[in-house]
């Protein structure tokens, strides 16, 4: 779950990181009042969960309260990368002398955290990273050790950040670990003409697994890159969209993972990961099929079930009743094995749906599903 900038800055402030004075509103009239309270001249900033607001015209300076009202009116309702602006933040402007980039991210591949920092922060950081990767320092952080003053000094030195940022780097690490975040990013972290270090922007991604103890942020939507993933999550399904053509449904994460491998071994690409777990009810099956069939790149679906506590006949019943609410548009290859497999197969045979075929082995079924996906036009 991503936080809004104004929420991220709230966390920064609580952990002792300096931020400009600011207030949020959804009304341009109120924006004028806020600007007056903040001293007249303000920066008006769109609150959307997307980067690149500055370049999209969602961050603008207003010279006085009247201009703040006008600017707020222009930014409210704006579309930034598919997000409609419903709230603006008005912040006291800061005299920027230098802009830095700092972040901590969970590096899943390396099984550790990564500090990323650069003395060339600001809206061009992506271009800087692409053109001159050496301008961006990447330092692994041992999660057990954390960021001590010594670690922070190393990060700052590697990135060419001034020594005053060391304290902020330690505090930002505290935000990451104490607030259940998997990513914290400040871009820009600035040095003012007076030599103070301030966070002018903030991105915080909280670990979705810790939502139960983060009620403070309300029932915000989980972070999903893909609309189908969001829909699946809303239905309580464990679904991840992939690039391929063979839709996959299985019971148990381990079985689903090996199903992906076997399908790939047959020369086709899995279209998704979907673990229905023990829930083989008609509802779960219908939800799962609906999600997978709405993916236009899916050409065949492989249902791979090893009956255990959930018996195969229950899964077969689930598939058959799902057919009442789901219009099957693509071939379904079903492999049932384990507890009550024979009974489950009989249930599907009796239904005799023209698009459903059964193959008794995992390898055979994967091969069939792969053929159907690669031959289908
Ligand atoms: P983003 O484009 O979504 O990353 O939004 P930011 O909050 O990072 O703002 C974009 C840019 O606007 C920053 O890199 C700053 O250069 C500039 N900016 C933001 N706030 C202020 C401010 O208070 N004073 C000044 N002078 N510039 C600001
Ligand atoms: Mn920014």
Report on this structure:
Pathway: Carbohydrate metabolism; tricarboxylic acid cycle; succinate from succinyl-CoA (ligase route): step 1/1. Substrate binds at residues 251, 308-310. Mg(2+) binds at residues 187, 201. Its cofactor is Mg(2+). It holds the Pfam family ATP-grasp_2. The protein has 377 residues and is of the alpha+beta class. The protein has three domains: 21-91, 2-Layer Sandwich (Dna Ligase, domain 1), CATH 3.30.1490; 96-211, D-amino Acid Aminotransferase, Chain A, domain 1 (2-Layer Sandwich), CATH 3.30.470; 227-375, Rossmann fold, CATH 3.40.50.261. It contains twelve helices and 18 strands. It has helices spanning 5-14, 28-37, 65-75, 125-131, 149-159, 165-178, 227-234, 253-265, 282-293, 312-325, 341-351, 362-375, and strands spanning 22-25, 42-46, 59-62, 79-80, 83-84, 88-91, 96-107, 112-118, 136-141, 181-192, 197-199, 203-206, 238-241, 246-250, 272-275, 300-307, 332-338, 356-358. Strands 7, 8, 9, 10, 11 and 12 form a six-stranded antiparallel β-sheet that branches. A hairpin with a 2-residue loop joins strand 4 (79-80) and strand 5 (83-84). Helix 5 crosses helix 6 and helix 8 crosses helix 12. Manganese (II) ion (MN) binds at residues 187, 201.
Order of helices and strands: HEHEEHEEEEEHEHHEEEHEEHEHEHEHEH
Low-confidence stretches: none
CATH architecture of the largest domain: 3-Layer(aba) Sandwich
Helicity, as a percent range: 25-40%
What name does the CATH topology of the largest domain carry? Answer: Rossmann fold
Q: Tell me, what is the CATH class of the largest domain? A: Alpha Beta
């Amino acid at each position: 779950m991503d936080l809004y900038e104004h929420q991220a800055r709230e966390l920064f402030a609580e952990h002792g990181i300096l931020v400009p004075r600011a207030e949020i509103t959804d009304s341009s009239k109120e924006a004028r009042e806020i600007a007056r309270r903040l001293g007249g001249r303000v920066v008006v900033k769109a609150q959307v969960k997307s980067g690149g607001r500055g370049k999209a015209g969602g961050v603008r300076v207003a010279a006085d309260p009247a201009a703040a009202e006008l600017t707020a009116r222009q930014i409210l309702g704006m579309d930034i990368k598919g997000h409609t602006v419903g709230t603006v933040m008005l912040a006291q402007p800061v005299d920027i002398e230098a802009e830095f980039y700092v972040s901590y991210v969970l590096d899943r591949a390396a099984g550790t955290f990564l500090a990323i920092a650069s003395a060339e922060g600001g809206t061009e950081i992506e271009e800087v990273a692409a053109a001159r990767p050496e301008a961006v320092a990447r330092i692994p952080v041992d999660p057990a050790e954390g960021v001590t003053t010594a670690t922070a000094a190393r990060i700052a030195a590697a990135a060419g950040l001034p020594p005053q940022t060391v304290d902020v780097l330690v505090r930002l690490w505290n935000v990451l670990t104490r607030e259940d975040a998997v990513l914290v990013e400040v871009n820009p972290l600035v040095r003012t003409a007076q030599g103070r270090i301030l966070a002018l922007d903030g991105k915080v991604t909280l670990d979705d697994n810790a939502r139960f103890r983060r009620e403070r942020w309300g029932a915000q939507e989980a972070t999903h890159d893909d609309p189908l993933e969001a829909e699946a999550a809303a239905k309580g399904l464990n679904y991840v969209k992939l690039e391929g053509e063979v839709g996959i449904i299985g019971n148990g994460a381990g079985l689903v993972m090996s199903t992906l491998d076997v399908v790939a071994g047959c020369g086709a690409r899995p279209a998704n990961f979907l673990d229905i777990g023990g829930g083989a009810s008609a509802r779960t099956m219908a939800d799962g099929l609906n999600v997978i069939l709405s993916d236009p790149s899916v050409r065949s679906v492989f249902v791979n079930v090893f009956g255990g506590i959930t018996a195969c006949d229950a899964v077969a019943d689930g598939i058959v009743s799902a057919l009442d609410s789901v219009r099957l548009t693509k071939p379904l290859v079903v492999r049932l094995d384990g507890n009550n497999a024979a009974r489950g197969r009989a249930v599907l045979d009796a239904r005799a749906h023209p698009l459903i075929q059964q193959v008794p082995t995992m390898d055979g079924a994967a091969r069939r599903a792969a053929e159907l996906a690669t031959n289908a036009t």
